From TrEMBL:
Superkingdom of source: Bacteria
UniProt EC number: 1.17.4.1
Cited Pfam families: Ribonuc_red_2_N (PF08471), Ribonuc_red_lgC (PF02867), TSCPD (PF12637)
Domain TSCPD as annotated: residue spans: 743-846
An MF annotation (GO) of this entry: cobalamin binding
A biological-process GO annotation: DNA biosynthetic process
Lineage, top ranks: Bacteria, Bacillati, Actinomycetota, Actinomycetes, Micromonosporales
Protein's UniProt name: Vitamin B12-dependent ribonucleotide reductase
Amino acid sequence: MGHRADEGGDGVTTSRSRSKAGAGLKIERVWTTEGVHPYDEVSWERRDVVMTNWRDGSINFEQRGVEFPESWSVNAANIVTTKYFRGAVGTPEREWSLKQLIDRVVGTYRTAGEEYGYFASPADAEVFAHELTWMLLNQVFSFNSPVWFNVGTPSPQQVSACFILAVDDSMDSILDWYKEEGLIFKGGSGSGVNLSRIRSSRELLSSGGNASGPVSFMRGADASAGTIKSGGATRRAAKMVILDVDHPDIQEFVVTKAREEDKIRALRDAGFDMDLGGSDIVSVQYQNANNSVRVSDEFMSAVENGKGFDLRGRLDGSVIETVDAKNLFRSIAQAAWECADPGLQYDDTINDWHTCPETGRITASNPCSEYLHLDNSSCNLASLNLMKFLRADGGFEVEKFVKSVEFVITAMDISICFADFPTEKIGETSRAYRQLGIGYANLGALLMATGLPYDSDQGRSVAAAITSLMTGTAYRRSAELAGVVGPYDGYARNAEPHKRVMRKHAAANDEIKPTSPVATAIVREATKQWTQGNKIGDKFGWRNAQASVLAPTGTIGFMMDCDTTGVEPDLALVKFKKLVGGGSMQIVNQTVPRALRSLGYPEEQVEAIVEHIADHGHVVDAPGLKPEHYPVFDCAMGERTIAPMGHVRMMAAIQPFVSGAISKTVNMPEAATVEDVEKIYFEGWKLGLKALAIYRDNCKVGQPLSVAKSNKATEPAAVETAAAAPAAVEKVIEYRPVRKRLPKKRPSETVSFSVGGAEGYLTASSYPDDGLGEVFLKMSKQGSTLAGVMDAFSVAISIGLQYGVPLETFVSKFTNMRFEPAGMTDDPDVRMAASVMDYIFRRLALDFLPYERRAELGIFTASERAAQLRAEADAEAAAVTGVELTAMASSAPVEIPAKPEAVAQPAQEMADVAAAKPAPSVGSSTELLEAVIGKAADAPLCFTCGTKMRPAGSCYVCEGCGSTSGCS
């Protein structure tokens, strides 16, 4: 384990001596109130966290009586309890409250900040601790997972999530690589490595024999990674393997994983269990790493111009072979089309933005490709929740965002002072260059909530402005820190290239073309931050060689109750929601109604559109929704998906404002061609990206079956059971429904209505013991065709009710039916109707169905909707995190009067709804989406709880337990 900061590391010693001359930071309050502790500003509650495998009901984890704010969702509390609370369950040492977790981390940061001279006074240190506490408590930001795992515990205090290793052309170095990766995986992090220094299989050893080549050594590392769970029980190992495009073994490297897919097919056809998580899938190699090819401008130009390209030996740089660049590029695209690997990393672009070229080139990245810096280095990550800075009027809290970035960057830099590192070499480089990776989550939700399509000039303008403001502020604070505690140790030798990169960022900021007042205000502040930061940096230097990356934000995204991860758009418009007290339900994403209101839709139409989305999973043909607004609701998957180039263009818009790169996968449809992959990879280079990976739907063989396929797979068993049934019973009794007629005298009520100007009467009769049994509809004159149709329809519905067909069945079938007349009604509870049938069955539901049934169908009275709006307004005014409550607003009212004098609690209402619903047949949002669109999603099963994971950048995260396949 690398030495501790207080054991005399050079970087820390220098920082300590310099801090004596600095005045320390003066800290001003932003989020907190003087004299009030952040914990006293929120309401707390005790919960039981019981995690079960939804497939078999077995209990994976149980801790009762944990303490969380009422505003935190069930998922956030579950994941924090299972992942981040330390101590053995059932012992006094076990953490049981979020207060303990935050105090453990923030207390360590404050103590280290005071020890290393960051603050002007103890009062400033206390304000700093309170601000961090408030932001963490209210889900404004989160540190990366290793901070929560390790800081303030007896374990080594590893705070970094991302590591880059180095491997030289010697057996000792290769074996060290195996060992170092294992230590990193054990600590809950991921690593990347470039194997291009290892001589190729076409070169000679000193003994005269041929070398093994890097691909052969990949096998051993892959097998090692497959046996190690990061952090002991947190997640599987995550790693990246890179090879330069001019390496003589590049063609073998490119097809490694594609060949393994062929092996999977052959073994599957032979009867072996090759599904993800299957018993035989472990025999497949190279599955524990993401592979990337490091391409140069020379190679890409050769591809563009149809020229040859030289593959060079590792020992003396001599030309081993000259290949056709287009053919090699084609083979890269072909392999990616077949199995999603390899991705590309654009070497010259990466090193053109390198702040420390005098120390060494950037040769590799972490597993998710967002951290790009020196060999044997690490990056400490933290991410801001962008939705916390969105105002009710659609504006952006620019000033609070700037101050929040200051707090987070300061804390991240402090962590390097006390951090442990897995190896001595990584510790030395990390302390000397102090690489940080501030980023954000919820970009997709922010854009949708403000009514901006993800794939639009307006959306890209806002994203670029926010990213520029974040990185500009981070570097300005880094320059201020350099004035207080000194620049990073490697700054002196890299001062000129570092300044050059800062000027490149500032120049890129000047090229942003704001398309809205919001973007204009953000760009104006970003320009100010870059100008001030570069001026301060010219005087003092910078404290950090790197400031920002855009990570997947998998587990911490759930901790912050984010709807979208990193820079990703929404996965889908419907999601799987866990409820207080157990159970789950399908809801429409909470950003959808906010987006509709931002676009100017009245509340009645918002309700109707949300109901349509709940039923269909998309916005196509939603009642009253203008087609020009469809793109606002485009998602990564589903009926309306964002085009692949839409993802690439978003990455290109924000890349100039990120110190590192962007963890993101470009989703491509199954019908995409190899030529489409080539175009994406080529455009990524032209647009100035640093790294790019694609994923074509269903390109993997080893994947779970879709819901529809699973049903088909069970049909033989069902047939066999049916065939055996006669042997098990002597007599089969056929069930026949019995008609229950209404008595001669029955209670009834008549409602007059008007739909789109067409008037009519609805008479509904009930059984004496309650329950609708008869419906009469009158429209138009007696003897007309319409009157006859309505009479016949009334008789059919009435007979169905009397034979026991539930009213909710009719309601679910006839609501949202669209035909003329349609439009405004004279009913205050149903202001808009898609048709007469839509109105009639909404009215019947309101009159005869209990609240629990109506909540499932999304049908509410005017008073119920008003109560919902009041609750939302109160929540916003109190600045309380409303992710769970607002999400509920898409499916059920937050506050519904059960009696005139009583108000039901939101959690209890939701639990009642869950109890009334049938048990769901899915266990995650990905599986819910599969059920909606009727096809499989290529996501792995979680190794911890068995549910299907969801994409998070170029990795995957389980929304059931928080496990990730990446390094955030």
